[in-house]
Each structure stands twice: as C-alpha cells, then as structure tokens.
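Let's practice the habit of predicting before peeking. Look at the sequence and jot down your guess about where helices and strands might fall. Then scroll down.
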Amino acid sequence: ELIREAYEGSERIRIIANQITYLTHSGEGVETETVKLQQVLDSAIRMAQPEIQHRATVVREYEADSLYIRGPRTRLGQLFLNLIVNAAQAIEPGDRAQNAITIRVRSTEEDRVCVEVQDTGPGIPSQLLRRIFDPFVTTKPAGRGTGLGLSICRRIVHSLEGTIEIQSHPGQGTVARVVLPKAPRARRPLSMPPTSMSAVRRATRGKLSLLVVDDEPVIARLIQKALVKHDVTTASDGREAVALMGQHAYDVILCDLIMPEMTGMDVYRAALQRTTPVHDRIVFMTGGAFTQRARDFLQSVPNLRIEKPFDLGHLERTIYEAADIVDPR
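Done guessing? Here is the structure:
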C-alpha cells in the first residue's frame, strides 16, 4: 500500500512538472492508442484520492457499455486527473459526507463520448469564468495552484478534435464537460500465435515467464520487483535479449523501443528470424518520444505497446493480453 501511494505521488509530481513543458510543445510523437475510457477515469480517480478523501465522496455514473477513445494514454490521464483534482480542491475539507464529485460517462448521438466532472463546491464567479482557460488564471488561493491545469486540458482536448466547457454558478457547484470522438474497440492482432500449454498452466496461478529488456537497469529492476509473482529475467541491451531468447521460451518479452546500438526494432527482427519466431510475443515499451523511423516501425507491426510511465495494473493487463490469455485476477 505504501509503495502504491509512493508511486502515485511520484506520478502526480511528474505530471505537474511536465505542465509548463507541455504548453510549449506540440506533443508530436506521443504514442496514440485506443483506450477504454472507464479505465482511464478510474486510474485518475485513484491518483486523485489524496485530494478527494477528506472533501467528498466519488459518484460514478458510467454508461453500461464500455466506451473507447483514441489518444495518448498519459495525456488522457493528465486531462481527467486535472479536472478531478480541480473538482476536489474546490471543496473545503472536513465535510466529506455532504459533498460529492460525480463523474458521468455517456455516448452522444453524434458518435462521440461525453465525460462530465461535477462538484458541489462554491462555484466560480462569472468574471473569472470568462478567463478560466487562460494560462495562470486560477480559482485557488495564492501558492496552491499554477493556473495551468485548464490550459493544459483545453490543449489536450483540442488536439484530440474534442471540445471542453466549464459551467458554473456561484453557490451551485461546477461542471466540466469534455466531448471526444468515439473509437471502435481495439482488436487483437490476428497474427498472434497460439498460447503454449505451459503458459496456460502458469496463467491458472497467475505466473508467466517474462523477459524485460531495457538499457536503464534501474527501470528493468523496478519492473522485475513489481512483477514479483512472475518469473522475470532482465536484459540490459538488445544483444543480451537476443541471446536469452535463444536459451529460453518466454511467454512475453517487454522490450524498450529506443536503445543504443541494438534497438527494440532490431530485437523484433532478430525474433522474427528465429526458427520458431517469437516476434509476436514482444510488447514494446515507449517513452513518448520517437524518431520518424520508430513511428513508421510501430505503424507497420501489430504488437502491443505500453507507454512509460505505466501503472502496475495496466502493465499486468497488457502482459496477459500479449500472452493471449485471460488475466486471472
């Protein structure tokens, strides 16, 4: 529990530290994928809990069917985390039972999805509401907010061809409404080979044989420790990974895309050329920045990929999906 809280705290710091940088960059090259909207929202709610827990209860009003959208998972998480934290901080702590933050998700007639984050706070004065998306405009007391959160939100939403609006009246709370294009559910790659019986047997008790390839040993060790219930081997470069693949049949290979000398793309090609190809077992780990060659490569292969930093739940779901089995949890 303490480790999870420490991770989520560091993630919040990372997001805040990146806000000013994001305002001055286009975000080009950030990995886009089809994501389940409800999962992104649930993750944002968990990360916002330190702000929410003494202020309000959370009410989820999700449409029964799963809804999917296209976009960079980290940007979408940043968008909804900002809105939920804003809602929480609008409410004074100490009266949790009398206050609520309601998150609504529904589809619209125009093949889009609408997300609303509503709070029971004091509302926003009309003169401030007109400038609410301007950089450095904040409703928070001095020293408590940067005034960049909603500017970031608007930029993310517009980059995804969506709309965002804030409705508020003093004494009646605030509603942040985001409308984004709906996406079809992501399909599994058709070229995924059949799961080995040994993998199925290990999966029944939640255990898989994994190879983690990353040129940053600290990251590889952290993943190894996070996935302690699996058999995890680490490799610090592409050549070591290729050698290990020749010695052991791994259920899933988590491979950093950009590495010096031998990249994840090179590892993929080596895996493809084996007598028994294992290239479809590779999940690419990306850091959000790509060369044109890397972008072209990712578009040409059906492999799953996961963007750093990732939470443990998302990582494990991706691993089980790559092994073509059902997550037993």
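How did you do? The first helix runs from residue 2 to 23.
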